[in-house]
């Protein structure tokens, strides 16, 4: 089993919430003010800011305040760890499915010979 990976855990925790995933999807298009990001959600701004805080702690977004406006930007580099983990899992499962396919082919050949 992999050793504990806090950055990866933090990223998955941040992306586990549908509101936070939607914020990331919006920010992929470009920077946006918090007020604009919060508009589609029926929640108070302090509650929405908790979502922003979780995303910032995971390093997925950064925010900068100019005057009264806080603007958020997406940091795609932080997703590299999650991407690498998914690729490792795909490789493991692809190998297992290849082994299963080989076994089934062998068993089918044995059945055809009898």
UniProtKB/TrEMBL annotation:
Domain named HTH arsR-type: residues: 1-94
Signal peptide start and end residues: none
Organism: Thalassospira lohafexi
InterPro entries: ArsR-like_HTH, HTH_ArsR_DNA-bd_dom, WH-like_DNA-bd_sf, WH_DNA-bd_sf
One example GO MF annotation: DNA-binding transcription factor activity
Protein name: Transcriptional regulator
One protein family per Pfam: HTH_20
Domain of life of the source: Bacteria
NCBIfam families hit by this protein: HTH_metalloreg (NF033788)
